[in-house]
Amino acid sequence: MADSPLGRTLLIANPAAHSGKGAQGAEFARRFLGSYSSVTSGYEVRLTSGPGEATTIAEGAEGFDTVLVLGGDGVTHETVCGLMRRDAEDRPQLGIIPLGSGNDYARTLGMVTNDVEAAFAQLVRGSVRPVEVGRVNGTHFMETLSFGLDAAIAIDTTERRAADTSQKGEALYVTSGLKILSRARGGFPCTVRLDDEDPVDLSTLIFAVQVGPTYGGGFRICPDADPADGLLDVCYNVRKPVLPHLLALFGLARSGRHARSRVVRLRKIRRAVLDFAAEPPCQVDGEALSGTHFEVEVVPAALRVIFPV
Q1: Which is nearest to 107 in space by CA: 197, 237, 225?
Q2: Confidence category of residue 96, pLDDT binned at 50, 70, 90
Q3: Which candidate in 220, 249, 261, 308 could, as Cys together with 122 as Cys, close a disulfide (CB 3.0–4.6 Å)?
Q4: What's the CA gap between 271 and 8, in Å, rounded?
Q5: What are the C-alpha distances in Å from 138 to residues 133, 134, 135, 155, 305?
Q6: Nearest-5° Cα angle at 176, 236 to 148
Q7: Which residues does the UniProt record annotate as the domain DAGKc (predicted)?
Q8: What are 219-228's pLDDT values in tens digits?
Q9: How large is the greatest C-alpha to C-alpha distance in the chain, in angstroms?
């Protein structure tokens, strides 16, 4: 473990993650870091007590080489937002100990999910690589931004998770998807400008902007997305399918086979501007975002992240 990349380490843990298993995970992390002094040059552990606290803690991470975040995509999103508020030259690297329902960012990085001990084993032997993040109207995202029906599904899963549903991961996303899609009526009219191209008018059912390939607990919405290529991947509909076709596309998205359909288009971009006629469902890393005008851009090589080797 002498080659551990961690250095001086701050661990931010959500004790409520994964139906309360975050508290056990945080205690294991504390024992691990205390028992194996060679993996760090000192450490602190901070537990969050409410929404937004991880952002504040990460923003104030002065003098640390690494910020580790233990929990699901929600606390990871908050931590990334906090790190991005720091100057680039004084921004600690990021490590993920995924303990949540969706764990999509962990999938992008190749981390073991919901196994704290195995995740630590990956991190202390890992290598550090720069990755991009996305930004929309000043809010950063590490994995996904979406508008339309898929955003409504993501928001529904977040609300059901907060209400302590027994479903998790893919099962939760699928049941929310079937509920939302069965009520689908029309689209959300918007004007979209991608990079320096001319604006186009769309009737948006889905418009997803991705750093990594998946959302919703493993749905491969942008199968070729690479978090280190300096580009954002987008998937959006160019036609409005009838409901049975829409439901079929939803099923195909689990494995990325929806990309073959003429109903959707996949692109790589650096920037997008979207103007909606009325406020659409919108989510950023699972959190609802309001508005009708959205300016989206990539921030290349914004974070240094520990990847398993």
Answers
A1: 225
A2: very high
A3: 308
A4: 35
A5: 12, 10, 6, 20, 21
A6: 30
A7: 4-140
A8: 999 999 999 9
A9: 59
Looking at the chain, the number of H-run helices and the number of E-run strands are 8, 16
Strands (E), the chain: 9-13, 43-47, 66-71, 93-98, 127-136, 139-141, 144-148, 188-194, 200-204, 206-210, 232-237, 264-269, 271-276, 282-284, 287-288, 293-307
Task: Tell me the Cα Rg of the chain.
Answer: 19
For helices 149-162 and 169-181, give the axis angle rounded to 10 degrees. Answer: 130
C-alpha distances out from residue 268 to 25, 40, 110, 124, Å: 37, 38, 22, 33
pLDDT at 224: 96
Q: What tokens were used for 239?
A: 């036609």
pLDDT tens for residues 181-201? 666 567 889 999 999 999 999
CB atoms within 10 A of CB 91: 18
Question: pLDDT, tens digit, for every residue of 285-299?
Answer: 989 999 999 999 999
Looking at the chain, the whole-number percentage of residues with pLDDT higher than 70 is: 92
Residue linked to tokens 């690297």 = 93
> Each residue of 228-272: pLDDT tens digit?
999 999 999 998 888 778 778 888 888 999 999 999 999 999 999
Q: Is the pLDDT score of 303 beyond 60? A: yes
What domains can you pick out in the chain, each with its CATH number? 9-125 (3.40.50.10330), 144-301 (2.60.200.40)
Beta partners for residue 146, in sequence order: 208, 283
Retrieve residue 27's tokens: 């205690």
Q: Residues in the chain, how many?
A: 309
